[in-house]
Amino acid sequence: MGDHIRLIDQRRLPEELVLVEVHSIEKLCELISELAIRGAPALGAAGAMGVALAWVQGRGMVETASLLKATRPTAVNLAWGVDRALAAGDPVAEAVQIAVDDVALNQAIGAHGTAVVPDGARVLTHCNSGSLACVGWGTALGVIRSAHVAGRQPSVWVDETRPVLQGARLTAWELQQLGIPATLVVDSMAGSLMAAGKVDLALVGADRIAANGDVANKIGTYSLAVLARHHHIPFYVAAPTSTIDPATPAGSHIVVEQRSDSEVVEVGGVRLAPEGMIAQNWAFDITPAELVTGYITEEGISGRIH
Ligand code: MRU
Q1: Is it the case that residue 175 has pLDDT exceeding 80?
Q2: Which ranges in the chain are annotated with CATH 3.40.50.10470?
Q3: DSSP states of 41-83 as a string?
Q4: How far is the CA of 283 from the centre of ligand 1 (A)?
Q5: Is 41 in the pocket of ligand 1 (CB under 6 A)?
Q6: What is the domain class of 5-105 according to CATH?
Q7: Is the pTM of this model over 0.85?
Q8: The architecture CATH gives domain 113-302
């Protein structure tokens, strides 16, 4: 970053790896809203860089902060990154520090998380919590990556993650790059896989963890947690401590982003449902703390937030 921000346009993956240069706050807000950049820790870094860009351009930083925060309400890391840069004497240095720290934090999450990945574990994951969702390494996918590097030989069931297909497009692509064995499944296959004894643990990221341990993550996560409990399969959440929001007492207080129904009635611009069909598109759901086996953060693994 200097007078612009460079980021991977995740909408173009897996077809092509394209970097875009961002020169205005309006463009950054548009890219965040359209999921060109997405994933809680990546949004934290992008938010901080947005404030830094405003500072470099001599633009109102408080106004910029509220524009950025309004783009996506659920991932607390976005507001966290914006506020950190806003409070810093040098927002550029702060934004760069957030980016550098993110990779180290994720590697620490991975190192701790390897302890819950048995040899040859078959891990089910949802959405994308890898390098793309962060600045590097990844959170839940980072744990799988660390376990792979440690020789645990994990394999991954990748939920396709309707409607935006972060699993099929992004997680599948990342796992291929890393050479980690992975199999793509439709989201609704998770229960059958568990019943067939083919899942050893479920591992997901988080967009916000309330003070009581309730977890907001990609829609479909709650169903997985219920299924995992029914089948006595461990269900772990991996996230940096910046995803824990002490100001939100419980999941019921978390604002769940509602996205356009076009993401549901169309796939890749091709209409699936009949004209005039209405749809609901809740981007996230809330998993109650009681369904979470453990939280893996850069500080270690805990069964409870408090
Ligand atoms: O709508 P998205 O793609 O931004 O949702 C992302 C997720 O739900 C991830 O699981 C979460 O941000 C954790 S990423 C390390």
Answers
A1: yes
A2: 113-302
A3: HHHHHHHHHHHHHHHHTT--HHHHHHHHHHH-SS-HHHHHHHH
A4: 9
A5: yes
A6: mainly alpha
A7: yes
A8: 3-Layer(aba) Sandwich (3.40)
